[in-house]
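User: Modeling request: complex.
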Amino acid sequence: MFIRIDPSSGMPITRQIAEQIRTQCASGAVAPGDRLPSVRQLAQELAVNQNTILRVYERLTVEGLLERRHGDGTYVADHLPVGQMKAQRLLVRTEVDRLVQRVQTLGLGADELCKLVKQAFEELAAGQKQKGAPHE
Amino acid sequence: MFIRIDPSSGMPITRQIAEQIRTQCASGAVAPGDRLPSVRQLAQELAVNQNTILRVYERLTVEGLLERRHGDGTYVADHLPVGQMKAQRLLVRTEVDRLVQRVQTLGLGADELCKLVKQAFEELAAGQKQKGAPHE
Amino acid sequence: MFIRIDPSSGMPITRQIAEQIRTQCASGAVAPGDRLPSVRQLAQELAVNQNTILRVYERLTVEGLLERRHGDGTYVADHLPVGQMKAQRLLVRTEVDRLVQRVQTLGLGADELCKLVKQAFEELAAGQKQKGAPHE
Amino acid sequence: MFIRIDPSSGMPITRQIAEQIRTQCASGAVAPGDRLPSVRQLAQELAVNQNTILRVYERLTVEGLLERRHGDGTYVADHLPVGQMKAQRLLVRTEVDRLVQRVQTLGLGADELCKLVKQAFEELAAGQKQKGAPHE
DNA sequence: GTGGTCTAGACCACA
DNA sequence: GTGGTCTAGACCACT
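Assistant: Request completed. Predicted assembly structure:
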């Protein structure tokens, strides 16, 4: 499970984690029936408290995205709520809008932003190569 | 003063406001010596509590970005702290990184994202024409 | 807010509290728009941790029964979810069934149980007179 | 052995099972010396994990209610602990109190509750006729 | 003052 | 081992 927390973002980390799990469900990175890391595992991996993860799993369970089986583990629900996944994809639009709005105030244009975007993609790709197998 | 609050973003609204004021100072949208809207005005405009605006102005004053003149109003400081501008542009980098990271999980590539960015720019431009001169 | 916790019941106290609030919404004991006791107040009153109350309010908010206004307070939602209130009333049937099942194994009949029920009602009434105004 | 589990009740299922066995011992539904179903049988019958039953039997053995004969089975103890029976009946009182308390908040009176109780008794009786001799 | 997030740690229930 | 409840307490955000 690739989740990255950005403590400087101002967004509560429970929410960051929840959104990334939602995104990965929407994109098919994790499929219905897949087992998620255990509360303790993920907590350790992200260096946060167990309760933090627990609450994320709880919320997503209420949303119908996950399924918690007592004493067994946490799984992606068999039938993901329709429409919610669509909403998820729309969210990206919203975030792009937000970015563009801010960037424009700084006097940057679409082309400059796109350049930044491409750079970021390249760096991300490079970063992931380095990690490769070692981590897991 | 063009400030837009997104309560659904999860970022504290005081932080959203502060960041947008910083951005506009850095970009020159508001210049040293300019007078900012009064606490009451801005609070009403954004439909938030006056104390929320008050604390934003306080914080930015401590940073050296604003100047509060007792009985008069709040102004952009005459000498903006060095490095503000650079810091501001760096922030955009950070946000681009965040976006790219999330978008990537959804299976989108750099080109798709750029297309979205350009669309957003165009829509923003169109939207601003409609408004014409701001009501401030 | 009259809520009584029974630690010996084996039911998590968060759930006990939540059920009693639901019941009071269903019965009209508290009406839409009413303000609930603050998290801290109720926590103190019931001698439980603040987080415990917080989680109860959170869950009921997700259910659409309550509304939390940041920095202001927690209120009964204006439009209580229809059907949920009906479900609430049905719950009493379920509990009666449970009781009867157990009682029957003990060899008691309907009449004996009814006698107990009436006694309990009388004692409850007596107990509430004693309290009367002093508490609030 | 007639045991019914209600997973939605919030009471731990191990406790539900234990209480029902205690009740049946107290009421004479099972007598001293009677053999209880094996751990495996009961686990299968109730569709719970064997360990769950195991722990219930363990607990009740410690209480002196049951006796586990290695390699043979689990039996109701020859000499039931004194006071068990009384304690059992007291428990019913407790549950009646709980019910009455909740029901009262809903604005129901003693008579309405008694009517429900009688209905439940009749339905229970009807249900048990259909089953006839238990499959054990 | 209000609600909200997070941590640390104890202890319980289920497989 | 898994998930789940509860406590205690720090600190943040909003009215």
